[in-house]
Fold:
Amino acid sequence: MCPRSRARRRSFVPVVADAVGIGRLEEAETEALEAAAAQPRNSGILDTVVSVLLSRAEPRGAAFIQTQRAREPDVQSWLAHEAVAAG
Structure:
């Protein structure tokens, strides 16, 4: 990961965490989706996107889950997200 990507990732985390922490899930979703568009293979960002989408009961999270399950079939967090989405 290049230094700019690391810096962008570091700035992304507190913004989304703050937005989620005070109940501004719509803002968190926007920030997370923008970060995912910039880094579509970053598993950590995609995990945050899915968490926010699931928190908002957004069905779009399923597409992210399916993509990541195909990329990382043995990663437990994607299995857990899949179970929550199906629940």
Summary: Residues 3-21 form the longest helix (19 residues). The chain is about 80% helix and 0% strand. The radius of gyration is 13 Å.
